[in-house]
């Protein structure tokens, strides 16, 4: 879910992803932090050059991991991901790219672009029927509106998203949405309510701990304590936000935490430490292209100069904050900059300028007040209309007392008309119900036919397996046992008459044949359930199986395993091993390939298997009925596990088969 971000003069909780580089230095002598996830993805991207959905997904992961340390690279990656997603008509990937780019636009102050991307994401996910994703996009629009000071519009979007979450979401998503409503309380100065919402988020039972999201929560709690005039608590939470941000190479979060520390230190008259902290914050914010935070830092530096009675130094800082906040259309930041300019003018005895700034500030406050009061005005209008309706009802009741006869006649006419309307509606409903019943019957017949076809495919595959095992037993083990029997019969017949050397030869021949029978039976049993699968798991079994397929004509197999350090459930391993066997045998029989590449990638909740060959390929649309019996068998086995099959094939360029299988999530709340 996209839910938490920070920005503006008072950075706050906002966009977070649920669905995963280091700093060049923080200015405090710290060793550069690294992001192992980002390093792994950057290394993996050149390994997926093929323009398919896997590359779109990898690009999206890189966009997200680069957001805090290299936002410009994220935006460049988003251009490629959107172009490729449109080319493939990959709606889910397109929606993800829009939401990610919108978050980066929002955190760098491009609010109009951010809202446009969130609306694009909303449309894509509505077309997919992904209502949780729709709720996340709506929620993000509300968060940008908060940054713009449009509180009533923001709350309207939050409530709209919350209604969807209550129907389709999880308790944690609902709590996060309520926390976003709490940010509006913060902006409106109701700090106790804002604090309660953010602490509720941090204390949520079973919540998945995420350093990025936790840093955002610590940041807002620190700001809330700062407004409640509790500097010790504020400084404590800013320090926690700073530590969490450094651990993730999060330049934006680290810069915002340094900003909070700097304000508290300035209030304590620790001017040297405050000056150094705000300077570090500005360096980090500029590295992250975080323009809203830059505006907030300029205002904080101006306030620091005013505290030291240095209005000449304060004025250019507030002017920079004012210009930047006007550019961003961030009214709360503009208000703070105007207040600083007015205070600076008063300290310089420039009362005309102070009055001018004061008038602009009053007009902006009135605008914010009007925006925040919209809901109350609407509620008063509703109450007024209700009172008007009550008065009208009383008047109508008085008129009814004098018009009983007219009303009775009209009631009779109305009753007759209503009866006819009900009759027509009843007939229409019966016709509609009949049509719906016919549709359900046809759907059920299609479902039954598909089930029968898949069952027949499984039975056919099982029967073929029985024939193969029977043939192996008859042609191999049966003949060997027959040979052993002949040797033992000859031994029994000649036991008393044959010389010892001949008897020894018969015994040796019988033992040799029995040993060969034992090896044959063992090979058959290993094919049924390999020891590698039982003892070491799917990865080892597949590697062992493919190594035995290497042929004299140059067939080569490559196996790549990612994240398979732990065993999968036994049933999942068994079914997927049979599926991989079927795919490999199809390649050997039909593809004329020289290289088979197999990748198994396990994530937290999904296993992805990609089988690629460099053979002659085929046209999936040209398959005749019954020609794809092996594929039907594979689809049936995957359907049993809740998985899916995707085929990318064309004549002359090989084939890529991708399997996705959901895995049970461990330690879920």
Structure description:
The chain has 24 helices and 5 strands. The longest helix is centred in the last third of the chain and has 90 residues. The protein has 3 domains: 340 residues, Alpha Horseshoe (Serine Threonine Protein Phosphatase 5, Tetratricopeptide repeat); 123 residues, no CATH class; 132 residues, Histidine kinase-like ATPase, C-terminal domain (Heat Shock Protein 90, 2-Layer Sandwich), CATH 3.30.565.10. By secondary structure, the protein is mostly helical. A 5-stranded mixed sheet has the order 1-2-3-5-4, with helices on one face.
Model regions low in confidence, pLDDT < 50 over at least 5 residues: 1-32, 371-388
Strand elements, count: 5
**Broad CATH class of the largest domain:** Mainly Alpha
CATH homologous superfamily label of the largest domain = Tetratricopeptide repeat domain
H/E element order: HHHHHHHHHHHHHHHHHHHHHHEHEEHEE
Please identify the structural class as seen in this structure.
mainly alpha
Give me the CATH architecture of the largest domain, please.
Alpha Horseshoe
Strand order of the largest sheet: 1-2-3-5-4
What tags apply to this protein structure?
5 strands; 669 residues; mainly alpha; 3 domains; 24 helices; Serine Threonine Protein Phosphatase 5, Tetratricopeptide repeat; Heat Shock Protein 90; 6% strand; extended; disordered N terminus; 72% helix
């Amino acid at each position: 879910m996209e839910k938490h971000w920070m920005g503006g003069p008072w950075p706050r909780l906002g966009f977070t992803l649920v669905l995963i580089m280091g700093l060049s230095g923080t200015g405090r002598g710290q060793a550069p932090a690294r992001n192992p996830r980002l390093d792994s993805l950057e290394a993996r991207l050149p390994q997926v050059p093929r323009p398919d959905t896997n590359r779109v997904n990898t690009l999206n992961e890189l966009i997200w991991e680069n957001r805090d340390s290299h936002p410009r690279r994220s935006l460049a990656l988003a251009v490629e991901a959107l172009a490729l997603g449109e080319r493939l008509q990959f709606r889910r990937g397109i929606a993800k790219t829009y939401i990610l780019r919108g978050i980066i636009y929002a955190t760098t102050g491009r609010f109009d672009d951010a809202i446009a991307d969130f609306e694009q994401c909303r449309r894509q996910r509505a077309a997919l029927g992904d209502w949780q994703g729709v709720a996340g996009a709506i929620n993000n629009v509300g968060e940008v509106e908060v940054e713009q000071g449009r509180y009533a519009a923001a709350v309207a979007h939050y409530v709209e998203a919350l209604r969807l979450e209550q129907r389709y979401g999880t308790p944690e998503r609902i709590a996060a949405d309520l926390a976003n409503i709490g940010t509006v309380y913060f902006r409106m100065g109701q700090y106790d309510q804002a604090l309660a919402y953010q602490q509720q988020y941090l204390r949520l039972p079973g919540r998945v701990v995420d350093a990025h999201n936790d840093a955002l929560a610590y940041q807002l709690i620190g700001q809330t304590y700062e407004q409640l005039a509790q500097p010790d608590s504020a400084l404590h939470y800013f320090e926690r936000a700073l530590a969490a941000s450094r651990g993730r190479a999060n330049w934006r979060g680290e810069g915002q935490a340094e900003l909070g520390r700097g304000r508290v230190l300035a209030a304590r008259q620790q001017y040297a430490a405050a000056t150094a902290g705000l300077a570090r914050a500005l360096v980090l914010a500029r590295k992250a292209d975080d323009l809203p935070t830059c505006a907030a830092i300029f205002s904080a530096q101006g306030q620091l100069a005013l505290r030291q009675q240095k209005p000449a130094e304060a004025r250019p800082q507030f002017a920079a904050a004012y210009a930047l906040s006007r550019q961003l259309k961030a009214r709360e930041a503009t208000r703070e900059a105007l207040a600083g300019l007015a205070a600076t003018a008063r300290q310089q005895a420039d009362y005309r300028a102070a009055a001018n700034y004061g008038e602009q500030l009053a007009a902006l406050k009135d605008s914010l007040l009007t925006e925040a009061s919209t809901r109350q005005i609407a509620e008063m209008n509703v109450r007024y209309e209700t009172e008007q309706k009550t008065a009208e009802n009383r008047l109508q009741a008085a008129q009814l007392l004098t018009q009983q006869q007219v009303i009775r006649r009209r009631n009779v006419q109305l009753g007759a008309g209503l009866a006819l309307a009900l009759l027509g509606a009843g007939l229409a409903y019966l016709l509609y119900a009949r049509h719906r019943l016919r549709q359900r019957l046809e759907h059920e017949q299609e479902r039954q036919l598909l089930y029968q076809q898949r069952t027949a495919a499984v039975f056919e595959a099982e029967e073929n397996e029985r024939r193969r095992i029977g043939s192996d037993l008859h042609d191999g083990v049966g003949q060997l046992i027959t040979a052993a029997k002949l040797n033992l019969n000859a031994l029994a017949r000649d036991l008393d008459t044959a010389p010892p050397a001949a008897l020894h030869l018969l015994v040796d021949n019988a033992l040799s044949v029995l040993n060969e029978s034992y090896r044959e039976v063992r090979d058959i049993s290993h094919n049924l359930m390999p020891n590698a699968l039982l003892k070491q798991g799917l990865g080892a079994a597949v590697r062992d199986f493919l190594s035995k397929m290497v042929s004299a004509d140059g067939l080569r197999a490559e196996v790549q395993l990612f994240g398979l350090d732990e065993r999968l459930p036994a049933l999942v391993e068994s079914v997927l091993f049979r599926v991989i066997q079927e795919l490999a045998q199809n390649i050997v029989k039909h593809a004329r390939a020289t290289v088979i590449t197999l990748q198994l990638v396990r994530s937290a909740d999904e296993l992805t298997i990609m089988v690629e060959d460099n053979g002659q390929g085929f046209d999936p649309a040209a398959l005749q009925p019954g020609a794809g019996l092996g594929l039907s068998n594979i689809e049936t086995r995957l359907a049993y596990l809740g998985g899916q099959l995707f085929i990318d094939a064309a004549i002359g360029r090989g084939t890529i088969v991708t399997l996705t299988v959901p895995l049970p999530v461990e330690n879920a709340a």
